[in-house]
Write a structure and sequence with these properties.
The complex is a heterodimer of chains A (281) and B (349). Chain A is of the alpha/beta class. Chain A folds into two domains: 8-101, Beta Barrel (Elongation Factor Tu (Ef-tu), domain 3), CATH 2.40.30.10; 107-240, Nucleotide-binding domain of ferredoxin-NADP reductase (FNR) module (Rossmann fold). Chain A has helices spanning 34-39, 81-87, 107-110, 125-135, 161-168, 194-201, 217-230, 271-275, and strands at residues 8-17, 24-31, 47-52, 56-61, 72-77, 94-101, 114-120, 146-152, 174-179, 190-191, 209-214, 237-240, 256-257, 260-261, 268-270. In chain A, strands 10-9-8-7-11-12-15 form a seven-stranded mixed beta sheet, sandwiched between helices. A six-stranded antiparallel beta sheet of chain A has the order 4-3-6-1-2-5. Chain A has a two-stranded antiparallel sheet with strand order 13-14. The two termini of chain A are 34 Å apart. Helix content of chain B is 31%, strand content 20%. In chain B, the strands form two sheets. Chain B has a seven-stranded mixed beta sheet, sandwiched between helices. A four-stranded antiparallel beta sheet of chain B has the order 5-4-11-10, with no helix packed on it. In chain B, strand 10 and strand 11 (268-275) form a beta hairpin. The chains are: A alpha/beta (281), B alpha/beta (349). At the A-B interface, strand 4, strand 6 and strand 13 of A face strand 4, helix 3, helix 6, strand 10 and strand 11 of B.
Chain lengths: 281, 349
Amino acid sequence: MQNPYLPYPVRIEEIITETEDKNLKTFKLVFINPDDQKKFTYTPGQFAELSVAGKGEIPIGIASSPTEKGFLMFTINKVGLVTSHIHAMKVGDIMGIRGPLGNWYPWDVMEGKNVVIIGGGFAFTTLRSSIIYMLDPDNRPKFKDIHVIYGARTPGMLLYRDELAQWETRDDINMHITVDSTDDPGWKYNIGFVPTITDQQAPPGNEETYAIICGPPIMIKFTQPVLDKLGYVHDNIIMSLEMRMKCGIGICGRCNIGKEYVCKDGPVFTLAQLNNMPKEY
Amino acid sequence: MMNVITINKQDWARGLERAYDSYRLFGPVKQDEFHNFRELVKGELPDLKLLNTRLSAKSMVYPQSEKLFEFTLDENREDHHILKEIHKDYSSRAVIGIRPCDAKAFLLVKANFDTPEYKDPYWIQSYEATTLVGYACNTPCRTCFCTTAGCGPFSEQGLDMLLVDAADHYLLKIITQKGEKFLNAAGWSSTAESDAAIHKIETMKQAAEEKITAGISTDKLKDKKTTELFEAPFWEQVAFACINCGTCTYVCPTCWCFDIQDETFGRSGIRMRNWDSCMYPLFTLHGSGHNPRNIKIQRVRQRFMHKLKYYVDKYGNGIQCVGCGRCIRHCPVNIDIRKVCDLMNNFEA
């Protein structure tokens, strides 16, 4: 019987410090056994349990895209026991990974549609995965207009800054990067909170347009009325939730919202679904 | 199958002695003031002079603490920091004297551990290795409400055999092939009893059921709207006295939640899982400090909503409760699931 609690061993191949406060680092992981890599087929929006022997496990969204071969990428905020330990690890160190876990953004439904990505803070990881995935030459024709609204407190708190700059130069993706404030005179993008920039720059909502939102609760709270105003229907507003998790496979019982387990039935829900679930997240 | 045999009480002991050669035997044993299940040593008999065990029989399949993996942190070893499976004993075992409520509970819990997508190998292998020899309740407790919770004092659901104490002898009903196998190992005479014995069990069953006067109504739960029940005004009153001790979840045969933790000793370590409880704030505390069930009322509501609404909706398998009454008997502030169930079943938004 296959054991869903047993992590695949992986090696840390590269560590990138992403933000000026050094609290966010990206880890590139490679599988030690090539067969494990073949088994790990994922879709943007999914997450994995990262495992450190002697410390425990944490659920983290997958930041790499399945179109990027040979490694997995996770951007990790230093918060608790396991993440603090991971932040102190070195290239070459061994850890484990279980997954892929959870559902994903509804790529089949969004085919032929406009996609608006709205992200804030460090919740941009599975959104990066999604952008890389959609911009892949094989996938780009499947989608109409792509908009990205992404904000952080300051320019130095934005993730993946090199890639953001590169996407800015392309004509097949509309970037709307913003910061809450900056004293950098060279800052050439937006200044303002994500809900405000969404109001100003997101395309109007219709049946053909989907919004994927990922960010801190305060951003989601104030962005939702903006999307309502712009005419987005709740079936087309896609959200990814977070919860404290242990098993990641819907068995240990802690991450439920009503009868749904965020780890297995989510983490991706439409706003229409969330409207019929208890407000307990 | 479905045979009923008669066993005199001396033969009962001798049969268990014989079964000991091919099974690990577990049964209720009196420790200090109350009975609990544990492994029996050779020659030791289950103590069947009891109403019910203090803790349920769930630990027979799902231990309170269980090792999952082991690892070494010694970097001189090639496999350092890589988790390894642990050899486990899944040889045949039999739980003697489990009450029908605790046996039915395994069926309810199975829906969680054995799903189409994921199989919990520890729970499933342990469950499959276990033969359940049930013990019918001639004298139910005052707090039992199994007959209205989809179970009963003579219920055979989830059991491989059912033992009935008929005063000077036992009647044993063989229900499944696992039961048949255990019968052979015990070597009790397998001559099928007459219709009279079957009739006697039926009579005793009715007498026992009539003794259970407390009950719940669950008929309207599935049609209630989750969000309306969730916002119902009575939760504050239900939760008012609760001290979040977690006793209800600990004694419950159908509570299955667990935590996963690593422990290290020098350079070796294990990953283990331990029973956990939705009554504790840490159960849902995010790394950020945010907690969706930060206050008591949210946690109390979660426990009852899970058992009486979420489970009902998720599996279409009835409520996640067998009516054993342990949470009622052992709650230090007298919270009564029967009353909460009535509040929920009768609630109109």
